[in-house]
Design a protein that fits this description.
This protein is an alpha+beta fold and 172 residues long. It contains four helices and eight strands; from the N terminus they run αβββββααβββα.
Length: 172
């Protein structure tokens, strides 16, 4: 009888473990469609700079604003990029293994080595979440979301820095 109980518990644990893995890695993700004008960089003056693009592939999930990832090609010129707000310490978040165009460890290494540059896409796209765009000289570009200083403080139940906009009531 004890063996049957142990085997049953192991089977149940395997089923729930498999379900948890599926929910984390595959469920909730949806393809993202972007039109020209949807993707912008933030200029040094705060004005948006439209990022022209092609070959867009993106994913997002309603379960977290941090699950957004995109791969694309751009032909933005270097003079226009020079007007964008740089993010020298941006670090891409790991994408699901099946979204193979987005190699976060490689993008991160390239950013640290100066082979690519990261820019502010949209600040506070959702409170505390910034969109980051990394651009390579050959036109490859990658997008992900990061928690900013305002989000870091508020999500951890600390007072937001004075430079932050007021947090929505749902986060207070």
């Amino acid at each position: 009888m004890a063996r049957i109980l142990i085997v049953g518990m192991l089977v149940l644990a395997a089923v729930f473990g498999g379900a948890m893995y599926y929910l984390q890695v595959y469920a909730y993700y949806e393809d993202v469609v972007a039109a020209q004008g949807d993707i912008t960089l933030t200029g040094a003056d705060g004005d948006p700079i439209i990022l022209p693009f092609s070959d867009f592939t993106g994913i997002d999930a309603i379960s977290s604003p941090l699950r957004y990832r995109a791969c694309l090609t751009t032909d933005i010129d270097t003079a226009t990029l020079a007007m964008a707000t740089p993010l020298p310490f941006a670090e891409p978040r790991i994408a699901p293994r099946w979204f193979d165009c987005f190699d976060a460890p490689q993008i991160g290494a390239d950013l640290r080595q100066g082979l690519a540059s990261a820019y502010m896409g949209t600040a506070n796209l959702q409170y505390g979440i910034d969109r980051v765009v990394a651009v390579y000289p050959d036109g490859r570009a990658y997008i992900w979301h990061e928690i900013n200083a305002c989000g870091e403080a508020v999500f951890n139940r600390y007072p937001a820095p004075d430079t932050c906009p007021p947090a929505p009531e749902s986060l207070q």
